[in-house]
Amino acid sequence: DIQMTQSPPSLSASLGDKVTITCQASQNINKYIAWYQQKPGKAPRLLIRYTSTLESGTPSRFSGSGSGRDYSFSISNVESEDIASYYCLQYVNLPLTFGSGTKLEIK
Amino acid sequence: QVKLLQSGAALVKPGASVKMSCKASGYTFTDYWVSWVKQSHGKSLEWIGEIYPNSGATNFNEKFKGKATLTVDKSTSTAYMELSRLTSEDSAIYYCTRGVEGDYWGQGVMVTVSS
Question: Does the CB of A23 have a partner CB in chain B at under 8 Å?
Fold first, then answer.
């Protein structure tokens, strides 16, 4: 199974900050990584697929990049509505595997 | 619009089974894989497996083989997951999702295993 090492586990940011979350795969995943946002009591929501393709409705302040084993997800100009947990997912191989999550809090 | 509507919460006894549903609407049910994902309280997400409604083909995470059974009813555009021989470790929220990347998710089913 491909392991996805996600960091940091938690982030505290001020409104307007830029934050970055990283996921490192245990092997090359050829850009097959997606990023999700999960707010308390809600199902995850797909924000980005295939490393950097924004889903319809995903604000442009969200972005993704990376290649090979190393990937990052960023939020520029953090807003209060961005308070949530964020997860990466590799989908190049079965079983699909998620990162451990990052909880974003506002200072 | 695409919707995945899951069945309600379940309280089940240890050793029993539970079957939950995921009714799809707003798209052609047979065109997309349906995956199932487990989220234990306060923890990350685990992929259980997937089913292709058109053929009934399935793929499973080895960890859930023997635990989860996936089926579909094409006539009602509904996917089902049955979990067997339940223990406290199976207490969690279970989501169904559409497609490999999970572009749509159900609202989740909370399963509580308790005597």
Answer: no
SS3 B22: strand
Helix, strand, coil % over all residues of chain A, rounded to 5: 5, 50, 45
**Locus of tokens 């084993």:** A69
Distances (CA, A) of A55 to A11, A62, A63, A64: 24, 10, 11, 12
Using only the alpha carbons of chain A, give its radius of gyration: 13
3-state secondary structure of B31: helix
Q: Kindly give the confidence (pLDDT) of every residue in chain A, 107 residues in length, as a single tens digit, with 9 standing for 90 and above.
A: 999 999 999 999 999 999 999 999 999 999 999 999 999 999 999 999 999 999 999 999 999 999 999 999 999 999 999 999 999 999 999 999 999 999 999 98
Query: Which residue in the block uniquely carries the two structure tokens 């392991």?
Result: A3
CA triple A62-A83-A72, angle to 5 deg: 35
In terms of CA atoms, which chain B residue is nearest residue A100? B44
3-state secondary structure B62-85: HHHCCCEEEEEEHHHCEEEEEECC
CA distance B92 to B35: 16
Taking the Cβ of residue B40 and every Cβ of chain A, the question of whether any pair is shorter than 8 Å is answered with: no
> Residue B108 has what DSSP assignment?
-
CA distance A92 to chain B (A): 10
Tell me if residue A82 falls in helix, strand or coil.
helix
